[in-house]
Each structure stands twice: as C-alpha cells, then as structure tokens.
Write a sequence for this structure.
C-alpha cells in the first residue's frame, strides 16, 4: 500500500506547541517525527542574574507543572553553596511538590487525556440511573447518584443544544475506536467537571505556603512562610486545619474517583497495553531528589531498568548524560555528532527549517527545537511508568503490591508498563502512592511543629558575601512528567551558566547521531504496528502521545550563558 | 462588583427562561430528538423557539420578564423596562452564545491554569453555558486539521479574542510556529473579526520572561501587533483566575470591555497598589520590618519592605481579591511581592530581594522613598486614565452622531448579527 504523509499540528490538550509528522503504510504508522515548534530562550536570560532570583525566572518555564522548576533551581543553588535547609522547610517543599503532582496527574487524565477514551456525545444517550449503578459498583463516592448524573447530562444537553459545541467542536465523536458504553462516558464527563472543582480546592495548599498558584513562591535557604501558632499572618492553627482538609480531600478523590475511573476505562482498552511501546530503557532518580551529594539516605536508589527485566536496576551516574543536536536547530562548535554534558552545555540556535508557513518539517535532517538527551548513549523514557518500574526493581513494598494488584486485574505483565495504557495506568497508581505519602508528610510536619521544630529558613548563606568565588551545583527532582535537573554555575555572586534537562526533553526528543528515535517517535513508529485508522481523525495517535503527558514549553530551552549572540537563522 | 454579579445572574436568568420553555414542551409530551437537533446551527433563538411552538407573543412576554430581571439589577433605571424589553427581544431574536477564540502563543500555560482556578464564576460555567469556546489548544477535543478547521470557522464570525503568550518577531517568527504558521500571522488572522481583544497575562501584555533582557527571540505583547483598537491587558504572571473570568463576564454583561488605566489594565482589578491594601501595612507605617526571613519579626507578621517587597510599586488586586478563591497571596505567605503585574518586572524589579530605593523603578528617581514612589505612580495612573477617557468620550461622541449608536446595554454581546467592521464602535472597548 502506498505510503501516506500525515501532519498533526497542533497537537492539542498538551502544554506548549507540538507537531507530529507521520508516514503510514495502510492503517499502520511506519515513521514518525516529533517536532517542538516553540523556543523561548529562558536560560540565556539567566546570565548575570542573582542566583537567589533564579527560581522565579525558571519557574516560568512551565505553569502546568508549576513549582517543579523552582524547586529544582533552589536545590541546584543550595547544592552549589552547600546550603543546609531546615527540616520543616524541606517538608513544606515536599508537600507542595506532592500536591502539585497529584493535582497535575488528575488534571492530565480528566482534562487532557480523557477525551481520547471518552465519547462525550455518546454520554448524552446514557441512562442516569444505570450510570449511578455502574458508578456505585466502582466506588462509594457521594455524588455518584442518578440525580447528579441526570443534572450533568442536562447541563451537557443545554450546552450543546444550540449547535454550539464549544470545546467539543469537531471532536472525533462516533469514531469506531471509542468503546465505552454511554453510561461510562457520562460518568467520565461528570467526573471531568468534578475534577475541575476538586483541583481548584486542593491546590490551595500551595497558596497557603507559597502565596499563589500557579507560580507559588519559593526561597533559597528554606521557605518564606514562618510558622507561629499565635499570629494571624503566619502558618497557624487555621492554616493547619485548612491543609489537613485539602490533603484528605485530595486523597479521597484519587482513591474514590480517579483510580476506579482509570481502571474501569482501561478494561475496555486493554489492547493499548501492546500499542505505543517506546524506548526500552526507563530512568528515575528516586523520591526526594538527587544532587552532587547523591540521594538522601533511605530513599529509593536512582537508576534505570529495561522493560525486558524490570527486576534489574542499573545505578545512575550523572556524568553519563549528554545532549545531542543532530535533529535540532542548533549548532555545536565541534559538529553535530558529539554530545555535550550539561556542565559543558552549549547552545547556538541555528534555524535551518523552511520559512513559515510550511507544509513539512521532516524533509530535513533537523526538525525540532528540542535537543536529544541520552544516558550513556541510550534514549530514556522518564515519567510515572519509569518511576514505578525503578521502585519495583528495588522491591519497594507498597509499589510492588499496588502494581501487582493492578496488573492482575487488567491481565497485563510488568513489561507492558512500557505502552500507551501502561503509562496512563502508572500515572494513576503513582498518584495513589503520592496522595498517601502526602498524608505522612503532613503528619511529620505537624508532629515537628508540636516538638518546636518550626524553623523554615536558614540565614547562614543568604548573604552573597558568604559565598565562594565560584561554585556549581545540580538539583534533580522527580517532576510530574519525569526526571528534571537544573545545573547552575556561579561566579562572583552571579549566574554564569544555567542548564535544565527536562522530562519532556527526554521524551519528545528527535533522532540522535545513531539514528535512535526519541521516545514519542519510538512509541509511534518503533515496530510498524501502531494503528491509525482515519488520518483526518488521528485518535490513536493522540492516545499514545497524551500517555506521555507532553509539556513542550518545558522541553525546549536555551543553554548558552556565555554571552554569545543568538545564532544565525537560515530560513528558506 | 455587586452590579456585575447581579447582572451576571440576570444573564443566567435569560438562559433559564429559554430552557424553561424547552422543558415545558418536554413535559407536554413533545418528543425532542437528539439534543443536537434542538437548536440548529443556522437558526436564531426566535426561529428555534417558533419551531418549538413558542408564539411571538409568548416570546415577547419572556423578553418582558427578562427586562424586568435586568431592571432589578440596578443598572437600568425604572421606567425604562419597556424599552429594554424591546431591546432584549431584538437582541435575543438573533441570540447565539458569543464565540470565544483563546490563543496560546509563546508562553507557559500558567495563565490558562490560573483561569481554571477561578472560583464562583468558573471556567466550566463560562465555556459550557455562557460562551462557546471554539478554539483553545489546551482544552479542545480535536487536534491538527480538525482543530484548524474549528479555528477558521470561529474567526470568520464576530468573536471575543483572548490571547495568552507573546509574539516572537526575531528571525521571521520561527521561534513560535503553530500549525505551520507563525504566531504573528495567527494572531493577525484571528484578530480581524474580533469584537474585543483580551491580552491575558504578562507574556501577552509585553513578553514577560521571554522579553527579559536580552530578549533572545524578540518577544512582544499583543498590543505591539494589534494597534487598531484597544487591547485590554490583564497584567500578572499569571493574573488571578477571578480577574480573567470577571473580565470576560464584564464584557458579556455590559457589552464592552472594562475601563482601563494608562497601561490597558482594567481599573476594577489594577486600580490600586498592593501596598495600600496590604495586611502588613500597619507595620510599615509603624516602622516594624522583617530583617531576615523567619526572624522574630517575620513570625510576628511584620512588613517585608526591607526583604525586597515590590508592593509599594505594584498595582494589583492580590490583597483584595486574594489568590485561589481568597486563600492568600504572596505577602500573606511571608514572601515579598515580585511586582509581577508591572511591565518588565524580571528586569525592573530584580534583584527581587533588594529593597525598592536601591532599584531603578521606571520613571521614578531612585532617591524617592517607597511611599513617595507609590504616590507618584498613583498620580501617573490616574492621569493616564483621564487622558484615555477623554479620548474615548470624543470618539464615542463622534461615532454616535454619525451612526446613531444605541447606548450600550447588557446584552450587546449577544445579538450582533452584523460582522463588526473596524469602525463599529458599539462592540469595541471604550
């Protein structure tokens, strides 16, 4: 059958701007290109700045996983300055990160991913009473009633009654690959709306500690929110009561709505445990981060596993990371073949693509603003499935139990976590683990406060006069979408080099000098069996791409802080 | 805000009346088919009601009730109800939910996330009941061709244009390309038939982080591209969610965008300094300052001015509206204000932890104390508004004389059947 070229741009329901170009052979994908079409140059802007300001600037890399770049940044600066942080401040940061990821995962599923599996129009045909029976068989969530589902159906009917479908306009409704019964669709639509209410409630945890969300405030040296039970403008008993409620409500929704929904929906789409198989190596750096000092004692070991043997962990070595530009619009002084370590990062943008408006990017060797990070020369998947597999390989009891139970229910094998369904399943299981851990973190904070452990800031190295003349540090965190690292070099109290290696850079990268595909590309074109029935309505492709939870504003950044001007642009 | 809320309720009442009629038919046993057949794509509200067996007389009675509801809201004086009923009937006759096109250009999605955080008048309420959001990359169902088709169709009609993100102009715009088209081309195309343009967030305002020195991609705000009409700037990185939804509601209720200050920022949100409404203000006046984070004074809730707080130079509603449904705001949580609603705050307000007199706040001599800076900025702001208002009055006066423009009424956003031309001032911001 003839090869057909297909362009999907914009990929919607993601963060940032992503374009996917494909070649198909009949109804199967034979080749794929992942093109990130936005570039902002944030790290260039960091040059000469006060390292204590860096978190606020790099935080603006992303407003969806808001907070993770800020925390990676302050950890990098604190690593450089060997800056000890009070325990209460660490616990507060952990809580903010945990809630951020829990909220981010839930939003991803309901608001960015669900419409790949849920036919919204079919929900109009559902019987509310039967929907309530279905929902009751899954969980005892209080709003799972016939009256509630009836009200949601009515709202949906009214919304589309005028023929104006709003965000549902031109959806792929009625596509033969939508498999849920109308009642399951209605339940999911109801929970789409409830998840919107839920997320704006629980994320207020970040507002209490960080003053706002998106983009809460953080602080090198600790946290700015003082704890004093006897003052109006500090973390006090009122705040603790609010926080406790949010932590509990976060956990309730995850356990009683998100988990049962994903398990129920997944059971209709089990074939996706064999679709979207991506790069066989999966990497994670552990729970509470990693720095040049290594991982905190007692936490999971960082490393990578291969999907064929998820019991074997290969230990992590931060010196083995390199970034390649074979397929990206940059130039290296020593050519396109060699990779560069983040400490030695170099970025001169050199656009060689067609002048917009254009039809195809994949005609060219270079087709994206995203660099290609590789670990020891290998493409790595990062994200929830990588984290679960790395924890599983170490026999982490809670992970093993949760994963084994879920795999038994769905009848899949551990290696199938490397699949479209596996990535989505891993995300929900991880949310369950995180929402439990958040309860523990909060309990530790409260117990500490009772014992008088209320210091949130360490002033010892706040004054730049106390800093060494030059220093460098790295902060690794596990962000919602995977392993994130920020690398900072400081000279004479100013930033001279700043580098971020971001989860979506790992996952959405293009080809490297060996011709190895990036993980998005590999998932679509790795085995020539990924389906695409109707190129006009590329539902199957969206399922696989969304299973990675793309964050393209994160993925692309400019790293050269040595003051070289932006490079030449050759547009033709 | 009271008026807005009550009129928002009035708007909802209108919709409920329509639905009540439909529901009544249903109860009488008329079988309605799929909900998609209820109201046809090319059908107006009155045609639809007629097809459903609602007489013109019943329809006008409905409009009378709607007018009464609106009159009760306090915007329209008594005695005008009858005229208003006719106005409502005229507008509802052609009523459709206003189309909204919400672009995301060079940005981080934080502004749309902030809109998702808005309480009370929520984004789901807006996009499912009050407007039809026909294009938005984050939320819309289709991708690729179908997404682009939805955009092309939406921008042919009169629509509200909301923009997140900046426009990189360097190197022929290759730094942000969507659907193969530069963000500048996309913005220009989307703006042609826009009845109002809202630049939401600091990126759309002036470029924010991308435009921070040395502005590698040549990022600019919406107003640098769309110059033939007022662009409303919802400043902030991001703006508070409620400010975003309230600005949309303001337009839906009053039919024009809200009055703005010298920098295009709505007065209802950006009319006052953070410093003037700060819960720590009494400590500033008493000279009680935090000297180091988490010191004894921090634990007493003292003023953060010496820690670098930019509240004295920042016009924003944070202490009044609060973030995340009034849960707090940065100063409340012990961190100095970064000044994120002011232009180029990543350059003008940094280093963030240095106090203001050491900084060169634009247009203000560095010797001035923070308080005098604030006072000077209040003056500048008011002067800006006055000039702007005068210009608006002149323009409106001229337009009315020439076109017999009706007074703008709450439903102006609903019934505009004519494609608004560049000179049709009824649908433009004041």
């Amino acid at each position: 059958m003839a090869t057909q070229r297909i362009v999907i741009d914009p990929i919607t329901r993601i963060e940032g701007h992503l374009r996917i170009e494909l070649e198909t052979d009949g109804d199967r994908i034979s080749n794929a290109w992942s093109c990130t079409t936005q570039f902002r140059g944030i790290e260039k802007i960091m040059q000469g700045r006060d390292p204590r300001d860096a978190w606020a600037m790099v935080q603006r890399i992303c407003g969806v996983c808001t907070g993770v770049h800020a925390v990676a940044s302050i950890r990098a600066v604190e690593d450089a300055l060997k800056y000890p942080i009070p325990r209460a401040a660490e616990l507060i940061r952990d809580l903010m990160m945990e809630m951020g990821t829990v909220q981010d995962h839930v939003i991803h599923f309901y608001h960015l991913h669900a419409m790949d599996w849920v036919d919204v129009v079919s929900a109009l045909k559902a019987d509310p009473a039967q929907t309530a029976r279905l929902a009751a068989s899954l969980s005892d969530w209080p709003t799972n009633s016939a009256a509630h589902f009836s009200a949601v159906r009515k709202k949906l009917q009214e919304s589309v009654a005028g023929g104006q479908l709003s965000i549902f306009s031109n959806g792929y409704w009625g596509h033969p690959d939508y498999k849920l019964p109308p009642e399951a669709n209605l339940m999911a639509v109801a929970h789409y709306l409830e998840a919107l209410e839920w997320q704006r409630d629980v994320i207020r945890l970040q507002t209490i500690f960080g003053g706002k969300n998106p983009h809460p405030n953080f602080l090198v040296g600790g946290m700015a929110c003082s704890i004093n039970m006897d003052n109006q403008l500090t973390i006090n008993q009122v705040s603790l009561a609010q926080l406790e409620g949010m932590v509990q409500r976060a956990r309730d929704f995850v356990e009683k709505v998100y988990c049962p929904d994903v398990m129920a929906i997944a059971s209709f789409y089990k074939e996706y445990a064999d679709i979207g198989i991506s790069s066989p190596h999966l990497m994670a750096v552990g729970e509470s981060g990693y720095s040049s000092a290594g991982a905190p004692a007692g936490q999971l070991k960082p490393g990578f596993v291969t999907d064929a043997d998820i019991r074997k962990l290969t230990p992590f070595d931060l010196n083995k990371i390199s970034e390649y530009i074979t397929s990206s619009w940059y130039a290296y002084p020593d050519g396109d073949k060699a990779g560069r370590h983040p400490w030695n990062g170099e970025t001169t943008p050199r656009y060689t693509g067609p002048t917009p408006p254009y039809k195809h990017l994949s005609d060219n060797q270079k087709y994206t603003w995203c660099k290609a990070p590789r670990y020891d020369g290998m493409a790595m998947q990062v994200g929830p499935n990588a984290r679960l597999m790395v924890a599983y390989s170490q026999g982490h009891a809670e992970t093993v139990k949760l994963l084994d139970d879920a795999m038994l229910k769905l009848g899949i094998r551990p290696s199938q976590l490397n699949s479209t369904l596996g990535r989505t399943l891993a995300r929900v299981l991880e949310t369950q683990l995180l929402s439990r851990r958040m309860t523990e973190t909060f309990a530790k904070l409260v117990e500490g406060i009772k014992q008088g452990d209320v210091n949130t800031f360490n002033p010892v190295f706040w004054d730049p006069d106390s800093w060494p003349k030059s220093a460098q540090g790295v902060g690794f965190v596990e962000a919602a979408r995977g392993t994130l690292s920020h690398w900072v070099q400081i000279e004479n109290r100013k930033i001279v080099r700043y580098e971020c290696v971001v989860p979506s850079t790992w996952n959405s990268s293009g080809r490297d000098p060996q011709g190895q595909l990036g993980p998005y590309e590999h998932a679509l074109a790795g085995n020539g069996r990924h389906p695409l029935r109707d190129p006009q309505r590329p539902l199957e492709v969206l399922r696989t791409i969304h299973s990675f939870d793309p964050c393209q504003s994160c993925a692309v950044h400019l790293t050269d802080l040595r003051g070289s001007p932006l490079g030449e642009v050759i547009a033709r | 805000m009271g008026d807005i809320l009550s009129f928002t309720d009035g708007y909802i009442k209108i919709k409920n009346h329509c639905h009540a009629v439909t529901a009544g038919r249903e109860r009488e046993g008329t079988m309605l088919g799929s909900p998609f057949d209820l109201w046809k794509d090319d059908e107006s509200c009155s045609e639809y009601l007629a097809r459903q067996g609602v007489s013109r007389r019943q329809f006008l009675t409905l409009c009378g009730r709607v007018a009464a509801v609106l009159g009760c809201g306090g915007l329209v004086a008594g005695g005008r109800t009858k005229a208003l009923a006719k106005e409502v009937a005229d507008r509802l006759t052609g009523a459709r939910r206003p189309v909204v096109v919400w672009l995301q250009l060079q940005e981080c999605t934080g502004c749309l996330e902030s809109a998702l955080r808005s309480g009370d008048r929520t984004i789901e309420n807006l996009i499912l009941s009050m407007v039809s959001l026909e294009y938005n990359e984050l939320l819309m169902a289709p991708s690729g061709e179908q997404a682009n088709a939805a955009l092309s169709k939406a921008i042919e009609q009169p629509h509200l244009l909301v923009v997140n993100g900046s426009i990189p102009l360097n190197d022929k715009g290759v730094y942000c390309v969507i659907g193969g088209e530069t963000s500048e081309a996309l913005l220009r195309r989307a703006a042609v038939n826009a009845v109002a343009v809202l630049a939401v967030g600091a990126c759309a305002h002036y470029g924010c982080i991308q435009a921070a020195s040395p502005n590698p991609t040549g990022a600019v705000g919406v107003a640098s591209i769309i110059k033939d009409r007022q662009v409303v700037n919802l400043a902030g990185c991001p703006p508070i969610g409620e400010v975003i939804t309230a600005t949309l509601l303001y337009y839906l209720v009053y039919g024009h965008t809200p009055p703005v200050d010298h920098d295009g920022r709505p007065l209802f949100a950006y009319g006052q300094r953070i410093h003037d409404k700060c819960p720590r203000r009494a400590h500033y006046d008493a000279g009680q300052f935090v000297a180091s984070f988490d010191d004894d004074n921090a634990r007493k809730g003292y003023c953060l001015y010496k820690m670098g707080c930019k509240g004295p130079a920042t016009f924003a509603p944070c202490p009044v509206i609060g973030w995340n449904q009034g849960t707090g705001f940065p100063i409340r949580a012990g961190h100095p204000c970064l000044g994120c609603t002011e232009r180029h705050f990543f350059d003008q307000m940094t280093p963030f932890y240095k106090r203001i007199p050491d900084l060169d706040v634009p247009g203000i001599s560095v010797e001035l104390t923070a308080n005098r800076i604030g006072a000077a900025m209040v003056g500048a702001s008011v002067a800006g508004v006055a000039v702007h208002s005068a210009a608006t009055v002149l323009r409106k006066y001229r337009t009315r004389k020439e076109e017999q423009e009706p007074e703008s009424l709450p439903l102006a956003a609903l019934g505009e059947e004519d494609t608004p031309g560049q000179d049709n001032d009824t649908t433009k911001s004041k």
Observations:
- Residues 420-450 of chain A form the longest helix (31 residues).
- Residues 3-119+178-326+337-555 of chain A form a domain with the Cytochrome-c3 Hydrogenase; chain B fold (CATH 1.10.645.10).
